[in-house]
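Input structure tokens:
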């Protein structure tokens, strides 16, 4: 666990107290951790599980064709009609 000393203004302290009360937390450290968790879940890209990435790779290989241009796609669609 990392310990930090931070300087916050009165409004930020109130917000920490609100978060602490809303989530029933015991101290402001838990409130800061909760805010960080909410930020992570809302704004940072989620990390994909390795087995899901493998599944995506398998699906990518099984389905679809790659076309170098719209014209090539159009020719392919017209030839299969």
């Amino acid at each position: 666990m990392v310990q930090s000393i931070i300087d916050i203004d009165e409004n930020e302290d109130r917000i920490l107290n609100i978060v602490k009360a809303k989530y029933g937390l015991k101290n402001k450290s838990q409130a800061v951790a909760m805010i960080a968790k909410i930020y992570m879940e809302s704004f940072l890209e989620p990390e994909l599980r390795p087995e899901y990435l493998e599944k995506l790779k398998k699906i990518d290989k099984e389905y679809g064709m790659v076309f170098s241009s719209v014209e090539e796609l159009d020719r392919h669609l017209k030839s299969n009609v």
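The two ends are 64 Å apart (CA to CA). Residues 6 and 29 are 11 Å apart (CA to CA).
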